[in-house]
Amino acid sequence: MRKKKPKILETFPNPNPERDYRIQINSPEFTCLCPKTGQPDFAQIRLDYIPDALCVELKSLKIYYCSFRDEGHFHEQVSNIIANNLIACLNPRKLRLEAEFNVRGGIYTTIVVEHCQS
Q: Cβ distance 32 to 72 under 8 Å?
């Protein structure tokens, strides 16, 4: 049995914390499994955030996304898990995560999760 690696999102200090600016990251090859059928679900994840003190390190984000490859999740669930973990890790001023899942049975699903720092 393959041992699961922990999901770790690494960060680095925001080089310009005095300014609001957007970081947009597009990941067109996200995969997870359908919890009903076990078949793969493919999605494009678009992350758009305004950092506060921290930024997400890209290689760790890629590895984090890949960690869902063998897990069964509904689209709504996995989108919110990812957003919640990013929010907890970064505490961004604003964050928008859009997960656009490929067609399955003639239906496309897009999940949009938004967060604004309070």
A: yes
